[in-house]
Amino acid sequence: MIFYFAAVLVAAIPAFRFGRGKTGSITCVVLLGGIWLGSVLMGRAAATMTVLPCAGTPAYVEVAGEEDLLIDCSNERDADFVVKGFLRARGRGTIDTLLLTHGDIQSAGGFGLVWDEFRPEVVVTSTARARSPVYRRAMRFLEERPERWKTVSVGDEVNGWEVLHPGRGRGLPRADDNCVVLRRVIEGWRVLHVSDLGAVGQREFLENGGELRADIVIAGMPESGEPLSGDLLEAIRPRAIILGTSRYPYTAVGSPKLRARLEASGAEVFYTNEEDAVTIMFRDEGCEIRAMKGRRVTLRK
Hints:
Blueprint: H1 2-17, H2 22-43, E1 47-51, E2 59-63, E3 69-71, H3 76-89, E4 97-99, H4 105-108, H5 111-118, E5 122-126, H6 133-143, E6 149-152, E7 157-158, E8 161-165, E9 181-186, E10 189-195, H7 199-207, E11 216-220, H8 230-236, E12 240-244, H9 256-264, E13 268-271, H10 272-275, E14 278-282, E15 287-291, E16 296-299
Parallel strand pairs: 3-4, 4-5, 5-6, 10-11, 11-12, 12-13
Antiparallel strand pairs: 1-2, 1-14, 2-3, 7-8, 8-9, 9-10, 14-15, 15-16
Helix pairs in contact: 1-2, 3-5
């Protein structure tokens, strides 16, 4: 960018300072501008998905020509300090769709702030109930605005993502076991988002059967137990794992045993407490995963 702007400036100086070579200078400026614009468009991904390094592992999805999607909104503190800043930096004053995957304060505690700041066109939840007072307040708020609220279960769709879990009904006792699990193919790349799905939810999810293979899986840390059990990991066989670890509480860092097990799968593993935000850039020829701390991995078909 520095090179192009310097070249444009040098090309434009004769026309405006000396009044000579005006046509040639303008032509040069137009050509350089076209080259720069072309390079920007050529390098642009067809879709991006950014996993944020904060409570609840919120993720933001942008697909060219489609409505944007924010998956979870973190707790109130991180929604204010991380999610809001990120969306503003992306130039967003509003968002199209907010999905709350489950009734956990770490995933849905920032709902009020996100609603006030970004006015989502529609909020999506599962039909499962939760005991969290914050989540229950959000549900009462949405009940008064049914035109802005949508509930989903297995077989439904959210902005092009297929819902694989949970089934319709009251759900399991723990909120983590009722996480909305999403799957989508983007530019030929299979992506699975399992949120903070707990041990019981993982077993039920596997028992439902179906093809679970995915190139990339995004998971958070459940309150109890481990994410991505051995059987679930074997069913998915991912090439890359993005795990929503955090420094607090200590259990959310992920035990050495868990980390060793995930890395032994052969997948590239990104830990958000170490890598900070992780962005997936989807292109037909290759999928690039970039961590804010500088690590980059490119997957090839």
